Description:
about 45% helix, Rossmann fold
Amino acid sequence: MVSGDDGEFICALTESVACLGLASLTMLQLEQMRLHYELLTKWNTRMNLTRISAPRDAARFHYAESIYGSAFLSGAASALDVGSGAGFPAVPLAIMNSRLSVAALESNQKKSVFLKEVKQLLGLSNLHVETARIEDYNWSRYSALVSRAIDRAEKTYTALIQSLSPGQLLMLFCSERLLENLERELPPGIRVDRHRIPNSQSRFIAVINGLLANH
């Protein structure tokens, strides 16, 4: 049975996806997103997974933006979500592309337990949960790194960009201010491709390629 909040979430997600100019979700994708949202709101009452939990806001800022980002990973075979937290963008990315192997990296044990429950509930065989800090984790085998809303973002992202291997991709969901701060700290010659998220004045997807970062 779909609750009032779940029904509002599904409607808001459908509208948000359309506003971003994206293809409609399948019934299975909608149901998997709904199940994730339902579990998120349940867990959020006893631990801080996200401050954005209202149906319309969550649909727009968490799910639809994550779905929008999936287009920038079209050539990737695997992706590591650094600091996955409540599962963004890892869970929507795994739902949108069953051929993409997605790892959700989360250092917090309780959040990792949540992500493992999400994986089981949604039946996402292409989603894997890794419990570790990025500083202690070997991420060299992933085609792409993705991230949004982590602590010490500037320091962590700068270190990641400087350590990218040729062919690796880093995709960040971030503000213009963070982008500007990142660009000031990077060595000359590294190009950051900005993609403004439609209908947003301040939110961007930044794409950095390891081939550029090593030249």
